[in-house]
Specification:
Helix content: 10-25%
CATH topology of the largest domain: FAD/NAD(P)-binding domain
Oligomer: single chain
Structural class: alpha/beta
CATH superfamily of the largest domain: FAD/NAD(P)-binding domain
Distance between the termini: 5 Å
């Protein structure tokens, strides 16, 4: 793996944008078929997993996270974040994938058979790549959903949770009622924070992990974690969060409450980079803003441009995970091979200047 900072245009059969598990799986399947492939990633390898909470444990078992026919080993049935990071590093190294890290795609031009991908590296250098086919496998974790309330941009308000230690002894409000919020609330509580959980719905989400639900419900019942279910956030002040029962808004509503807070975690989910997809020419269905995508090939409405992983689901980010998104790679690679064969294109050997 490496970084290309050359301004010379290098040429590939396939460029995959995004080096998450799905992007890596796509590159592996393509390389197996003799399709020269470059992976471009704006962060580090499996960047989203790297930014997950430090002590995170996956919902699923190891074999459902595997790519490239390489087994994942873990100390227990469900692997940890660190075990997953080590696994995907080893897989990328094993297949000698061409992964350019810390390189952001700035612009996409052209069409099937002649795409041009222009990028900028973290050090400021620009690069340009030509590809016959493209895959967008960018995920969604980089763009958190916003509350849209005054005070949300204050420095003590976070949309990501990493670990609990820095917040021991602090008053913390966690906003959200799904797995990210529940996990954070429990860990913060166990590290000595005074935690209040605020959620818009009258009950926690049905998606909360079944082995975690009794824990959070018992902590709430015992008064160890305060809960305000069925409440909306009106404003975040420097040292408090103003809330009110859902349906009330404006001024100081009857039944409203001011929760003292040193820190606030707004963990209400994430969304796709729809602007990036639109700029690439991808159109969307009305149903949950799903990108137009052929389920048999994963090709979008833009000929030669494929979608892989969670981007296929649009705003329904809970439909596709590593477990099922990883299979998109094989579908895409086989279709690309057929299309290249149909056009009479041979596999491309990258020009000098690219590094793996």
């Amino acid at each position: 793996m490496g970084t290309d900072t050359s301004t010379e245009t290098t040429r590939w059969d396939l460029i995959v944008i995004g080096a998450g598990p799905t992007g890596l799986a796509t590159a592996i399947e393509a390389e197996k078929l003799g399709i020269s492939t470059l992976v471009i990633e704006k962060g580090c390898l499996v960047n989203s997993i790297f930014h997950y909470p430090t002590s995170m444990v996956f919902f699923t078992t190891s074999e459902r996270l595997e790519i490239g026919d390489i087994p994942m080993t873990a100390a227990s049935a469900k692997p940890t974040r660190l075990e997953a990071l080590a696994y995907y590093r080893k897989v990328a190294q094993h297949y000698k994938l061409n992964v350019h890290q810390y390189e952001r795609v700035e612009r996409l031009e052209g069409g099937s058979g002649g795409f041009c991908v222009q990028t900028k590296h973290a050090n400021g250098r620009s690069a340009s790549y030509a590809a016959r086919k493209l895959v967008i496998a960018t995920g969604y974790y980089d763009l958190p959903n916003r509350l849209g309330v005054p005070g949300e941009e204050q420095p003590n308000v976070f949309h990501y949770y990493k670990e609990a230690h820095p917040f021991a002894g602090s008053r913390v409000v966690v906003i959200g009622g799904k797995n990210s919020a529940v996990d954070a609330a429990l860990e913060l509580f166990r590290h000595g924070a005074q935690v209040t959980l605020v959620y818009r719905r009258p009950q926690l989400s049905s998606s909360v992990k079944y082995w975690v639900r009794p824990d959070i419900e018992n902590r709430i019942k015992a008064g160890e974690i305060a809960a305000r279910l069925g409440y909306q956030v009106l404003e975040i002040e420097p040292d408090a969060v103003r809330i009110a029962p859902l349906g009330e808004s404006g001024g100081e509503p009857a039944g409203g409450e001011r929760l003292p807070a040193d820190f606030v975690f707004a963990l209400i989910g994430y969304h796709l980079d729809f602007n990036f997809l639109e700029a690439a020419g991808v159109r969307f269905q009305a149903d949950h803003q799903r990108p137009i995508c052929d389920p048999q090939t994963c090709e979008s409405n833009v000929p030669g441009l494929y979608l892989a992983g969670v981007v296929v689901g649009g705003r329904q980010t809970g439909e596709i995970f590593i477990e099922n998104g990883r299979f998109h790679g094989k579908i895409i690679a086989e279709h690309v091979r057929r299309q290249l064969a149909k056009s009479g294109a041979a596999a491309v050997i990258p020009r000098a200047g690219s590094r793996s």
